[in-house]
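Quick one:
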Amino acid sequence: MIRVVMTGPLPPAIGGMATVIGDLAQSSLADRVRLELFDTGKQTADGRAWWQGIQARLSLMMRWWHRLGGAD
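Output:
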């Protein structure tokens, strides 16, 4: 089965990409491929320290690498 990794802010985030990803997850595509969703939405609080933003971004990149099989 083909594996598709969709990357972007996942619902319930508001916006175009969140809507597209939500619609794809509910479509017949999800029945025909192995659809994996990867959330890139904001994970840190407003007013966070700059180092927390960097830490969150590095964590996101590591999770992305692992999802794509980079740890194999």
